[in-house]
């Protein structure tokens, strides 16, 4: 059974295990979708996987934390690192902005998944 599970691509650990649709490395904590189920051959029905800055898979309704300060056009202050954003929605955004959300004090906006961490 373990011969079908790939080794970790980050640390080459061979003790990986399956958890739902993901493969998890117990040594470094890396999680990924195995290539077998990810059918990149243009299946059309495949679901897009969006990951945060640390590599956690994001889903609609998740709560995330902004990991670095962001400038916002038209706002003198911007969004501070550590700002918690609740109930995100994953979208096909423009220029890499793939999270649709409402931030208290700023309103509705889109964020890049590379600047947030799952809470």
UniProtKB/TrEMBL annotation:
Every Protein YjdM C-terminal domain range: 50-119
Protein name: Alkylphosphonate utilization protein
Upper taxonomic lineage: Bacteria, Bacillati, Actinomycetota, Actinomycetes, Kitasatosporales
Residues in Protein YjdM N-terminal domain copies: 5-32
Pfam families in alphabetical order: YjdM (PF03831), Zn_Ribbon_YjdM (PF08274)
Family, similarity comment: Belongs to the YjdM family.
Organism of derivation: Streptomyces piniterrae
Transmembrane segments: none
